Amino acid sequence: MAAGGAPVRPAFIRPLGMLGAALVAVLWPVGALFALLASLEDMAEWLLSSKVRARARARALDEEERKKAITAHALDQLFDGDWTATAGQFLLRWYGHSSHPKRLLVLTPDRIVLAAPPKRVSVRQAERMVVVAELPASEARVEDPLLGVHRSDRLRIVFADGSWLTVITDEERSEIHKHLMRRLRTVS
Q1: Which residue segment(s) compose the domain that 166 sits in?
Q2: pLDDT tens digits, residue range 130-143?
């Protein structure tokens, strides 16, 4: 008897609810079995592929060594830290032209050309670059301290007074990296 004296009747499960419960009861173990088989296959593949594991270990070790080399050459720092040196003053002028992070670095035989978007950037104006600085080869040079040792997305602009500025490129082997590699081969 229920509260108030009404008769208690058995719970009624609708036919679609019963069908769903039956399907879940049958398909759930099948899905779990397929997931288990897939993970076992992945594990067997991993255990059997020593070459893949060796390559992955070598890549991880190379990446660790690359990070250490970047730190050792101070390429993780923006510049040498001396705001009164040429690099510091150049950095202040360069970012005074535009606060937009996108910059363009072009090497010519006798100078380094740097361009930036306009001071105020709106939609699609980031692609419109204006020359903000031209450095003669006698005042500055571009180098890749990790050239031939590690792949890197970092370059260094070294000024005549010894101060320097780190530039991070969009890709690890940019056209400038390739140019520096070719120039190194012709000098050697």
Answers
A1: 76-187
A2: 788 888 989 988 88
